[in-house]
Amino acid sequence: MNLSEYNIQSLKGVGDKTARLYNKLGIYTLQDLIHYYPRKYVDWGKTVSVKDAVPGETVFIRATMITPVKENLVRKGMTLYKCNFSDGENVIHITIFNNKYLAKSLRTFDEYILCGKVERNFTSAFMSSPQIERADKAPGIMPVYHTTGKLYNKAIVNLMRSALMLVGTVRESLDDSIRQQYNLCPLDFAIKQIHFPTDEKNIEIARKRLIFDELLTLQLGLMKLRDKGAKANNIKLEKDFTDEFFSLLPFEPTGAQKRAVCDCVNDMMSTKVMNRLIQGDVGSGKTAVAGAVVYNIVKNGYQAALMAPTEILAAQHYDSFKKLLKTTDLRVELLTGATKASEKKAIKRALADGEIDFIIGTHALIQNDVEFKNLGLVCTDEQHRFGVEQRANLALKGDNPHLMVMSATPIPRTLGLIIYGDLDISLLDELPPGRQEIRTDVVTSAYHSRIYKFIRNAVDNGNQAYIVCSLVDEGESDLISAKEYADTLSKEEFSQYRLGLLHGKMKSAEKDRVMQDFADNKIQILVSTTVVEVGVDVPNATIMLIENADRFGLSQLHQLRGRVGRGRDKSFCILVSDNKSETSRERLRVMKHTSNGFDIADYDLKSRGPGDFFGKKQHGLPDLKIADMLEDTDTLRKTHICAERMLASDPRLDAYPEICNSINDMFRKTDY
Question: CA angle 600-409-287, nearest 5°?
C-alpha cells in the first residue's frame, strides 16, 4: 500500500472543506498525515494538587466531584454550569460554558481528571471550561498538533487514530542490518509511538528513528540530485597547466589554494563533469583559484564564462582577472547590460568564433543571442544569488561544461555537505600571507561623538567609511531608518563631507551607481543597510561602523567587516550596541576576538539556531518535520555515511522502494 497514492479525502469524515484545512497544514495524502508529527504532548497521568497548581499554566488535577451541577442561564445562548471538586485537601470551583452534554455526564462522588488553567483569589481556586475525563478512562499521554482555522486538535487526533487503524502495519523502509548498526526501532513502532506513546521513553525511541529516517532521506535525495547532474565528461582535460599558471603569479599560493585547484583539475580529468563549490572566507584568494582553473580549461582548447550577480561586481571581476592574467596570452572580455551596442555585437561575434577565451558578465550572458564556440567551464559568483535554473541556462550554452561556484558566505562545517548537496566542496581555509587583520571594537552609543571624529580624521586623510544601520523595529522599512540616519548625519556630523545612501528599496541601476561613486571616491561616507554585505572591493575604505550590531547575525557581521581591510591601510570595524544582555555581549565578544569566518558561522548557528542563521529560506532545502540541523548534527554525520554506503551498493535504491517514495515526497515541494 503506497500511502502517497491515498488522498486525505479517502478517510471517512474528510470532505472538500475539511480537506482544504488539512492542505493548509501540508497534508494532502495518507503519507503526509502519518508523518504530521505532534508539536508536544500532554500527559493526563501527571497530576498536581490544587494547592501546587501554578496560576496561568495548564495543569492536570485528579479530583472528586462533591456538589451537583447548577445550571445558570445568563442570557439567550449563554448557559453556565457550576460545580465543585475536591482533591482530598482543597476545593476547586469549576465553570462550564454552554456544554450541556458534558454537564449532564458528570456524577457526584465520581473521580475525574480536570485539565485547564487554575485561577485564584485570596480564599479559593477556580477553573473555567476545563477538559474533564473520568479518572478510570483518562487517555494517558496525548499528542498536541499544530492546528489551523476551525480544524482543532481533537479532530486531528481522531483522524490520526482512524488513519493508523486503516494503515495497519507501517511497511519497514530499512533493512535489519542498518537498523541494528544504528540501534533503530522498527518504523511501525516509531510511527505509532510518536502519535500515541505509551510512555515518555518510547517517544524518544520513536524520535530517534524518525529523525534518522528524515535526515537519511534528505541526504539520499541530495546525493541522487548530484549524481543526476554528474553527466559524462565530454570536456576532459588532456594536460594539467597548474604549475605553469602558478609560475606566472607574483606570489606563492597557499596550500588551500593549491588543493582547491588540484580538486578542480582532477574533476575535469575524470569521467564525470565537475560540479564544485569553492568556499572561502573573505580574502582567502578565490580569484586566484578561479584564474588557475580558467587557465587550465583555456590551455586545453576551451572557453570559460563567469557570471556575477551585478554589473559592478562583474566589472570588478573583470579588472581583477585582467590583472591576474596579464602575463598570459588569454583574451578576457566583459559583457553586461551596460556594454555599448557596437561592443556587444563585436564581443558576441568573437565569442561565437572562439576568439575570446574568457568572458565575464551578468545575466546578459544567458541571453539567446550569446553563443560560444566551445564552452568548457561555467563559473558563478556568490552561490546564493543564483538559482539552479540560472546556472543551468548558462551551462546550456555548451556541451555539459564544467561548473565552478564561488562563495564567500561561511557555512558551518557540519552543514556544508547538506546545504550544497548538489555540489562537491573545496574549502579555502587559509588566508594568504600579508592579509591584514581588521581591528574590531565593541562600544556603546555613548562613544558616538568619538567615533564620528575618528571617521572625519580618516576621511581627511583620504580614506572612506561605511556606516551600516539595521532595522529599528521588525517590519519597519529599511528605507526609513537608513534614510533618516543619513539625513541627520549629512546635516550635522558630516555636513562638510560627501555622504551617500544605499538601501534595499533602490533599483539595481541606482544601487550600482551609488556603489560606483563610492568606489571612485565621489562618495566619502556611505550610509547603508546590509545590501553592502556582498559587494565590490573598495580598497580605500578603512572603517566599518555598524549600528545596533546586536540585531545582526554574527555571520552577517563578519561579511560586513570583510568590506574593509582590502587595501594597504590599517582598517577598523566598530560595533555599536547598547544591549546589556549577557548573551548579546558574549556574541559580540566572539566577533571582537575571532576573525575566522567558519568558526564564527559555527558559533552563530549554535547561538541562534538554523532558522535565524539561514534567514528567509535562502538555503532552499526541503522543510524538516522532526529533525533539527542544529540539535541533530551527530545523526546528520551518521546518515551521511549511511547514505553514501547505500548508494555505493545500490545506486538506484531498488531495494528501498519506501525510501524512494519518501525522497519524492520530500523534494516535490522545494526549489530542487
Answer: 120
Query: CB atoms < 10 A from the CB of 109, how many?
Result: 7
User: Which one is predicted more confidently, 165 or 581?
Assistant: 165
DSSP for 193-259, written as a single string:
HHHS-SSHHHHHHHHHHHHHHHHHHHHHHHHHHHHHH--B-SS--SS--HHHHHHHSSSPPPHHHHH
> Considering Cα of 506, then 507, then 511, then 514, what sign does the dihedral take?
negative
CA distance 186 to 466: 57
Determine the structural domain holding residue 474 and report its residue range.
439-594
Helix ranges (H only) for 238-340 are: 242-248, 255-269, 286-299, 311-324
Looking at the fold, whether 530 and 503 belong to one and the same domain comes out as: yes
Closest CA relative to residue 290, chosen from 151, 298, 440: 298
Same domain, 205 and 304: no
pLDDT in tens, 139-190: 889 999 999 988 999 999 999 999 999 999 999 999 999 999 999 999 999 9
Q: pLDDT at residue 571 above 90?
A: yes
Does residue 74 lie in a domain region?
A: yes
Does residue 591 contact residue 558 with C-beta atoms inside 8 Å? yes
| pLDDT value for 380 | 84
Question: 118 and 96 in one domain?
Answer: yes
Same domain, 636 and 541: no
Q: Given 138, 159, 194, which residue is the final one in a domain?
A: 138
Percent of the chain past pLDDT 90, that is, above it, reads 52
| Cα separation, 476 vs 325, whole angstroms | 46
For residue 545, pLDDT over 50 is answered with yes
DSSP one-letter code for 520: T
Examine the pLDDT at 302 and tell me if it is beyond 90. yes
CA atoms of 113 and 87, how far apart (whole Å): 10
- The CB density around residue 91, as the number of other CB atoms within 10 Å, is 14
Q: What are phi and psi of 627, to 5 degrees?
A: -80, 160
Give the chain's domain count.
4
State pLDDT tens for residues 288-300.
999 999 999 999 9
Indicate if 288 and 329 belong to the same structural domain. yes
Per-chain mean pLDDT for the chain: 86
The answer to the question of residue 611 being in a domain is no
CATH number of the structural domain spanning residue 124:
2.40.50.140
Distances (CA, A) of 170 to 2, 202, 210, 603, 661: 10, 17, 13, 40, 14
- The number of helix segments (H) and strand segments (E) in the chain equals 22, 22
pLDDT at 251 over 90: no
Reported as type and span, the H/E element at residue 449 is helix 448-460
Report in angstroms the alpha-carbon separations of 243 from 220, 258, 262, 325: 37, 10, 10, 14
The verdict on 290 and 418 lying in the same domain is yes
> Do 278 and 256 share a domain, yes or no?
yes
In a domain? residue 198: yes
The dihedrals phi and psi of 256, each to the nearest 5 degrees, come to -65, -40
Residue 383 · residue 409 · CB < 8 Å:
yes
382 shares a domain with 262: yes
6 found inside a domain: no
Burial class (CB in 10 A: 0-12, 13-18, 19+), 185: middle
Mean pLDDT of the region 82-101: 94
Chain centre distance of CA 36: 22
